[in-house]
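for the recovery benchmark. tokens below, seq after
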């Protein structure tokens, strides 16, 4: 998997970025804290376990660095090993010492498209569907695929985050997003070209998470009820 990186880029990672970057994860349910990034490195994003940074002189690469004592690094390396090269996914070019160098994907997340009022063609949804089918054919289990983890670039769909693709438990996020796309977005929202505020999008996201939690809780209660009913003499 490891490929030869530009010498100055690799030196900047080991001599400037890694010794000086200050990140920490306080709660695994919350995004990590990024306290300091050495110049000229720039923060692109942060998740619950890792930060993604880039170097302005090397726009085709990103570096994903896991916070200390947070899991997932080995699993993500394995996911990229299985994916290999595919147009809808990034590609791992180098992995060592708790960080990955990935091919940078350009585009706008579907979440941001809704905020900006950008039309999302059906080709984007079809591309992502085909990409997830490809991942399944490689022995992976697409997981946590939602509006912030998929992008649109020049009318084509991309999958940004694959870190949870080894999780085998069912995940309905992508199917639910597709359902909302065909039932709500295409017939109503797209013709109106509405720009939806982030506050409204966040409210929808929180309501969805709450509804999912309630559904899981009720399912567990139902299972326990059936179990005790079975034990009842």
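predicted aa per position
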């Amino acid at each position: 998997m490891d490929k030869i990186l530009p010498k100055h880029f690799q030196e900047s990672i080991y001599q400037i970025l890694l010794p000086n970057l200050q990140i920490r994860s306080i709660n695994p349910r919350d995004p990590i804290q990024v306290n300091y990034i050495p110049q000229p490195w720039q923060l692109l994003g942060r998740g619950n376990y890792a930060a993604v940074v880039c170097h302005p002189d090397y726009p085709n690469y990103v570096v994903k660095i896991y916070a200390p004592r947070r899991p997932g690094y080995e699993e993500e390396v394995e996911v990229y090993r299985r994916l290999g090269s595919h147009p809808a996914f990034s590609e791992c070019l180098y992995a060592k010492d708790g960080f990955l160098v990935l091919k940078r994907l350009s585009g706008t997340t579907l979440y941001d498209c809704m905020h900006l009022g950008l039309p999302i063609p059906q080709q984007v949804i079809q591309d992502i569907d085909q990409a997830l089918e490809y991942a399944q054919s490689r022995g992976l289990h697409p997981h946590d695929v939602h509006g912030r983890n998929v992008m649109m670039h020049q009318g084509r769909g991309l999958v940004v985050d694959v870190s949870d693709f080894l999780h085998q438990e069912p995940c309905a996020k992508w199917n639910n997003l597709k359902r909302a796309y065909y039932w709500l977005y295409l017939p109503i929202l797209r013709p109106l070209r509405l720009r939806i505020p982030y506050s409204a999008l966040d409210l929808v996201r929180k309501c969805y998470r709450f509804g999912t939690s309630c559904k899981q809780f009720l399912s567990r209660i139902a299972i326990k009820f059936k179990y005790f009913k079975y034990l009842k003499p």
